Structure formats: C-alpha cells, structure tokens
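User: Can you predict the 3D structure for this chain?
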Amino acid sequence: MTNHTVKVYPSKTNLLKEEQLAWKLAAMTTDLTPIDAEVTEMVINRIIDNASVAIASVNRTPVVNAREQALAHSRTGNGANIFGTSNKTRVHAEWAAWANCVAVRELDYHDTFLAADYSHPADSIPAVLAVAQQMGKGGAEVLRGIVAAYEVHVNLVKGICLHEHKIDHVAHLAPAQAAGVCALLGLDTETTYQAIQQALHTSISTRQSRKGEISSWKAYVPAHGAKLAIEAVDRAMRGEKSPSPIYEGEDSVIAWILDGPEANYTVPLPDHGESKRAILETYTKEHSAEYQSQALIDLAFRMRERIADFEAIESILIETSHHTHYVIGTGSKDPQKFDPKSSRETLDHSIMYIFTVALQDGFWHHVKSYAPERTNRKDTVDLWHKVSTVEKEKWTKLYHDPDPDKKAFGGKVIITLKDGTIIEDELERANAHPAGARPFVRKNYIQKFDMLTEGIITSAERNRFLELVSRLPELSPQEIQQLNVEVPEGYLVKTQQKGIFG
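Assistant: Here is the predicted structure, written as structure tokens:
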C-alpha cells in the first residue's frame, strides 16, 4: 500500500492529472491484478448477505415505493431485475439499482466499515450487478467490479472524514459505485477518472438524514448514489468530462465542504500489481442495528445473566468511543432517541434503547425488537431513560486503530443497582466480527439468509440462488441475469399511492 497525500491547490498550479486522487483511484480500479481466493469467497458472502436483508424487507413501505418506481421504467431485451420479482421482469439498470439498494439498506442489516468515516460498502453491489445484467457481463466481471468498489470505498473512508462537516457518506459511496461499474465494464483509466469525479460532484448531501427524527430517506441514500454513479459512467463513456480536480481544486469538495484550503488528508491505496483486499477488513451485522451497537448487544446478552431483577437497576453507564457517544448515544442530544414513538430508523440509532431491549430480552430481532408494543412497554421506557453514554479515550483510540485486527467498536458497561451494587463488563468487538469470538463464515451468512427469508421464499428457490451464487466467478451472462431471489407470486404488495411515474 502507498499513502497518498491529498490537499488543495490553486488553479494556477495546474495540478497534473496523474497526481490527482481521482486519477489514482481510477488507475487502481483499472489495474487487472488477479483477485485472491479469499476475496472471492467474501464477495460471495456479501451477495448472499445483501439478498437476505433485501428479501426480508421487500414489503416494507420504502422498498415497495422504490420497486414501484423502478417497475415504471421497464426495458425490453437486456435489462436488470429487482429483488423479489420474476427473473423475467426487466427494468433499466439505474432503476433496478435504485430499488435494490433501498431493499438492501432498509433494515440497516448488511455490512459496514468504520474508520475516519462511516460506510456500508455492500451498497455498491446492486449498482454493479444491475449494470452487469443490462450489459451482458458474466460472473468474473461482476467479481472484478465489486472488488474495485470495495477498494475505493474502504480507502476513502480510511482517509477522509465527511461526518465532521455533516456531509453524508454517500459522498464516498457514489465514487465507489462508479468505480465498480467502470471495472465491471473494463473501461479505461481516463473514462473511469471522469466518472468518479462526476459521481462525487453530484452526490454531496448533508447528514440531516441521520439526525433527529430519522426518516425513510436513510434507506434511499445508497440508491440515490447508485443512480448518480451509473448515469455518471454513462456520460463518461460518451466522452463527457467532469469538474476537475474534484478533490484538490481551489473550489473543490475539500476546499469548500470539508477541511478547507489548509486540508491535508492521507488516503492509502494498493500499488500497481498489489491485490485488492479491502473487503476483508469489512464486517457484517449479526443483529439488525447500527454497527456500533453490535458488541454492546452481545455484551447485554452476557450481562443479563448477572441481573436477577431489572427493577433494581438505578443507572446504566456505557463508556464508549467518540463516534458512538455522539452519533447513537446521549452525546447526540437527540430527544428522539428516548421517544418510544420514534421511527425504527431513529431507534436503530439509539444505543440507549438498543441496550435496554437486548438486556431485557436476551435476543435481538429485526422486527420484534422495534415493534410499537415493544418500544412502548413501561418497564422498557423506565429502564431506557436510566441509560447514558460517555466518551472514553481508550474506546476512541481502538475505534481509529489502523490495524484491522486491533480496531474495535465496543465499550464498557457499568450497571449500578439501587442497593449500591455495581455490575460491570466490557467487550471490544462483536462476536461476529472477523476478530471476534465467533467470526462470520459462509455457514453463518447462509444461516442469516435462511432466518431472514424463512416463510417468504420456497426451498427450491433458496437452493437455486445459493448454488448459483457459489459459482460466481464462472457464471455466464445468462446466469448473472438470474442472480436474483424470486418470491412466490402474490407475495409482493403494491403501493396504494401513485406518483409521477405511475
């Protein structure tokens, strides 16, 4: 790996293209270094993971609406398919990516990478797969596209913080999605460079989507990025140019939206000929909640065995990282995080609620743990309001450790009982983390798939999809067009409200 310095230059400097970050990302994307076997295995795992959470959410309102929008853009001949629908149903690629990204993100239950910023790298997969289906690409090309998207996304997240400036993380996602599509299509470095710049330029939005009363737009964010990225690649393929240099220019994203003219970022990238292995540093979720709560849910399960009476609890203090405290903890100062009438999206970002329910129930479920009857239970509300968080340097340091085997997103919990007894415990990593007690491997991804799709798809469809995806590198274009999970006819609901598209 080589660390690349990224800073702002005045226009008169005329920064060489080859010295710009977007070009370096493009050069890395178009480098055809062979893909490691363990990287291939993890790509397959993440395709399974995406499918499982997407099928579990197919009848949730944002997913239904996104699907209806996509179905209004049908395509004859080669097109892309939509999670849950018949493999014979074809729509334009950017609309398939739109619908499928919403389905993948809706439950916030797929993979994550946390460093200088936040990310869900698997959000790139629907964009790559949709374009592959429309453009007649096979499994080897899909694999290359997904690996490139992960490499761009993870390394941008390592080097450039967006949330400090209240910019949503789609600004790293859209360039990654564009890079993935370019790698899939085998485009040259110049075209890829232009597409990455366009994708970034058009994808800047604020983090209000993750603040206060969090709305369903949170599920649409990666879909928005996917459409922008696919359209950017299309324009670049036609010879259109982009705002340049998009990172380093004096009126660029960095100069006016991020750290400003004095900015100095360091972005690591693999050297030419070096394997792209960033996907191996990412991790999926065992529990359907914000990733920074994963270890604390596991810790709640462990600590509850030491508590005979939850009514005896006086207070619960969670010592954790800066990010956890300020984003999903009491440091956010969001009263909605204590409101039982808050949306699922808001409760998913309240460690106070999450820890309380995990402690009381001893399990976590993507539906039951957020049900209104669960959130409004009096004993839960009472205990929920006794939980607070505080930042501790130890956990912030672990959060930002550059060594993926040391990086951790856990915390220490101190439970004080009314009689003065103190019960405390800590956990650095979620059990399912690659460096955790029970790292997720293929069988765990399949178990998660089976759990989330139980009662929705047939056993024959389950077996067909899992067998197909297991052969990803060798799949033909025709087989890639079948890389979708169909639900039985009549299962999908339709929206009752029409929009512009019908």
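The chain has a mean pLDDT of 95. Residues 182 and 192 are 6 Å apart (CA to CA).
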